[in-house]
Amino acid sequence: MSFNTEKKEEISLLSTKLIMPRPRQNYIVRNALFEKLKHCSQMSVIFVKGAAGMGKTTLLSSFIVETKLKNTAWLSLDESNNSLFSFWRYFRAAAGKLVADLETDASADLFFELHEQKKSLIFLINALCSNQDYYIVLDDFHCITDPALIESLEFFLQSMPDNLHLFLLSREDPPVYLGAMAVSGKLLYLSDENMKLTQTESLAFLKDTMKLKTDDEELMKISKFAEGWVGGLQLAAAGGVLSGDLMHQTGKFAADYLNREVFCKLTAEEQDFLIRTGFLPWFDASICAAIFTSLDFSAMLENLLNKNLFLICIDEKHGIYRYHNLLSEYLKQRLAEKTEQEQKDLMCRAAAAFEAHHSYNEAVPLLIAVKDYNNAMKCIEQMGSEIFTGEYLRKIPEEYLAKNIDLATRELIYYVDCGNFHAFMHLCNVMLTVWKDTPLYPYLHFARDIFDTHKSTTVLPPAAPLKQIENYYLQPETIALILLGCSSLMIMNREYAKADSYADQAMQLTGRNSSIYYYSMGCKAQLAEETGRLNDALQIYAQAETRMSAEKVSFMRKYNFRIGIIGIYLKRMELPQAKKYLERAQSMVSANFLPKNLISYSFDYNLAEYDMLSGSENLGEEMIWQVIGSSDTQNWADRLLIELAAADRISPNRQAMILSEYNSFLSNSSEPSPVFELLCARLYYQQNDIEKANSIAQKVLSFSRKNQNRLHLIEADLLLLQMNTGTSAAERRQRNNLLREAVYYAYENHILQPFYIERSVLEPLWTDFYITMKDQLSAEEQVFIKDIQRVCCASAQTKQTILSAREMDVLNELAKGNTNPQIAEQLCISLSTVKTHVLSIYGKLEVSSRLNAVEKAKQLRLIP
Fold first, then answer.
1. I need a labelling partner for 510 at 20 to 30 A (CA). Which of 37, 406, 531, 824 fits?
2. What is the dihedral of CA 258, 262, 268, 273, to 10 degrees?
3. What is the gyration radius of the CA atoms in the chain, in angstroms?
4. Residue 63 contacts residue 31 (beta carbons within 8 Å)
5. Quick count: other Cβ atoms within 10 Å of Cβ 707?
């Protein structure tokens, strides 16, 4: 099966938002406000408030031009930026104008993850920290209302460096808390009153900027009625008649005035042009050429500029313009007066024009607005498969999205990355309806069930032949995701070679640069853990950790790796490492605004197991029952239940539920996991059904030997050893052989957990085992047995978490009073190795001398 993987992916930003609007010709210099703004280098935030048309944008752009303010960046906001990802994505782009490292960052598209905000913001804050002053203008800041975005902004404002200065231009009061800055003298606030033109400034605006030719008395009259509102002065000038009407800054008057004094005085052609372009985020000659069948763009633009209309030049070099919000909002109202079909036709033509320019960020919202979802999805397909396209796909009705298996799969990945498993499940259900009776159905079914943590897996969906999927001409990412679903399915079906092959195929299909890489590595780590290849699993996690440290990945991908590695350390009984990653995972959650119930299952599962293995069995049991809750299935919690069963903490009623579930597997001719089988074997043994318990355990042992599953082989050996209670020589020999096999398959990967679980059974057997088997044991196995015994003794956790087996050997020599050379000779190791172990012992015991080390070890009962 071959697929084309050569698909270019790029992140498209609306670059016009990052360009400072050019101040209009002959603008007035507002000296009084300029004097205030000259203190901007001493301020963290300069907040400028004023209604529409008060001249906020012109004030800042003219100030920057007049003062030649260096290191400035501009971001014009609108409603599309009122989300975490969109805002910070554009903010990073604006900051990239100032900091080269941000501008050239190859992973800029993943700069700000939806649920890893604080870390991303700290990265940005550190990047902006410099010995140079940086100035960033956020125009139309009133568009920011999203609570999560506001919370992230407040964190940024509290921590941003002293050399960064933000200009916030808004029609409304600040949505973020600025009280602390005001108290510390780091806030400059310009209010509506400050923004009003003085009479002198009003007259200068009418005469010099608007070039009105009339007597001073008439100009004074209009200035008085405008009450300092520059928009009112411009409306009057645009109308060509200096009426004496009161210039309200908001409400119905502006629209009425625009209609009566401005719009109605334009030619029919000019009116038509404004209505047909007023809804556009920006336009140039080529965009307008696609909308109008016949138009002299240059002449039209010159006429409108000469009539002092609210046109803003975004990019003079390329001739890109937009309308002031005041006029744009009015023109949208006029457009709404046309028939629905006329509006739709106009937006479709505009979308086609933007699409032809590869400006998909402008085309997609228009297509969605007219409910042309099929073409919207075609544009989204051209935008690459990175996370930001998920925001657009969310706006596509699921009944449409589900029919496009590639985009729907992309959205499923987006939901997983965001931790939005509820949306994932809902879209999966819609897709199951659409793709019923097709080869894709079983994979979608399985994908849904994987994320339903309490879902019964009594009947697994059958694996459809992958050859059949080829007929659907799917994108590589979609095929890869299906392959990874197959990989997980094969692990559950105990077909380990296929599971590994599917994961490799998925990675080869999409390459290392795809998000599929992390899912592939996750599957391979899961397989290595399942089969007891813990060293391989750790190596996989180390590779992923190295890559994650060099690039920015989504919160959920990083969180899943933090959680996944905990299971490895728990199986090795390396509890300090397990605790470290538990704390890291917990800090990731607390540092973000993700609802805890979305990720609590995986964290609580590992925490419960950690508690059980670290000696806090009461806490562990409480957490286990909290994790299981009211679920009517138990197989998904098999490992936790084994630890409870070994501690004799499962009630008869719960035992009956578990065994009933096991029998339901058998009645459906399917097999549960080996761990669940061993759990049931243990319960049958506790109920004195020795024959059935032995049969199940022997079955798991036979399977594990055949398929090289070290972990379950060890667990089955130790459970069978527990069932062997005879005293004959043959039975003793059988016990020793089972234990010998368990040690042999455990020592290389340091699999200690099964021995700890069976510690009460193993404790009286070690002496006989060691005497009988010592000559058959390698040096490495003998060291490993010491680790087992240390883990399994009464104070197992204290000892295990402090010193390794070799460090204990050195400690015992220290207790005898031997010198370093004597210890080296006694233990057959180098002198430098002895010194290394001694220093490690000092550090772990928190002492600074041999004498203190021995005393502390005795207090902890590490040595007699």
1. 531
2. -70
3. 35
4. no
5. 15
Q: Which residue has the tokens 């099929």?
A: 374
| Residue 137 contacts residue 73 (beta carbons within 8 Å) | yes
Helix (H) or strand (E) run with residue 76 in it:
strand 72-76
Secondary-structure percent of the chain, ordered helix, strand, coil, rounded to 5: 65, 5, 30
What is the mean pLDDT of the segment spanning 752-769? Answer: 90
Could you report the per-residue pLDDT of 602-619, keeping only the tens digit for each?
888 899 999 899 888 888
CA within 13 Å, CB half, 813? 23
How does strand 134-139 pair with strand 72-76? parallel
Structure tokens at 396: 């596509």
Q: Is 425:394 a contact under the CB 8 Å cutoff? A: no
Neighbours of 170 (CB within 10 A): 20
User: pLDDT tens-digit profile of 216-246?
Assistant: 777 776 666 556 666 666 665 555 444 434 3
Please, are residues 613 and 575 in contact by the beta-carbon 8 Å criterion? yes
| Residues making up the chain, counted from first to last | 864
Cα dihedral 310, 315, 317, 319, rounded to 10, equals -50
- CB distance 636 to 672 below 8 Å: no
- With tokens 């956790």, the residue in question is 797
The answer to whether the CB of 509 falls within 8 A of the CB of 483 is: yes
Three-state SS at 73: strand
CA distance 190 to 45: 11
Query: SS3 for 829-847, per residue?
Result: CCHHHHHHHHHHHHHHHCC
Bridge partners, residue 190, by sequence: 48
Residue 4: predicted pLDDT: 34
- pTM for this entry: 0.58
Structure-token match 């994650």, residue found: 548
Q: Sorting pLDDT into bands at 50, 70 and 90, what band is 540? A: very high
Quick one: which of 237, 291, 303, 231 has its CA closest to 266? 303
The first and second tokens of residue 258, run together, are: 């625009």
542 in Cβ contact with 561 (< 8 Å):
no
**Closest alpha carbon to 8 in 548, 532, 349, 382:** 382
Task: Provide DSSP, 553-609.
Answer: --HHHHHHHHHHHHHHHHHTT-HHHHHHHHHHHHHHHHTS---GGGTHHHHHHHHHH
Alpha helices in 614-651 (DSSP H): 617-628, 638-646
| Distance (Å, whole) CA 472 – CA 827 | 65
Q: How far apart are CA 108 and CA 89, in angstroms?
A: 8
Owner of token pair 């079909």:
341
According to the model, what pLDDT value does residue 106 have? 38
Going by C-alpha positions, the residue among 264, 396, 429, 312 that lies closest to residue 53 is 312
The tokens for 378 are: 């075609």
Q: Is 821 helix (H, G, I), strand (E, B) or coil?
A: helix
Which two structure tokens, joined as six digits, stand for 595? 């609802």
- Those residues with Cβ within 8 angstroms of residue 319's Cβ, 6 or more apart along the chain or in another chain: 284, 285
Instruction: Give the single-character DSSP code of 283.
Output: B
Residue environment code for 640-673, b if the CB has 16+ CB neighbours within 10 A, otherwise e: bbbbbbbeebbeeebbeebbebbebbeeeeebbb
Q: What are phi and psi of 394, to 5 degrees?
A: -60, -25
Report the helix count and the strand count for the chain, using DSSP H and E.
Answer: 48, 7
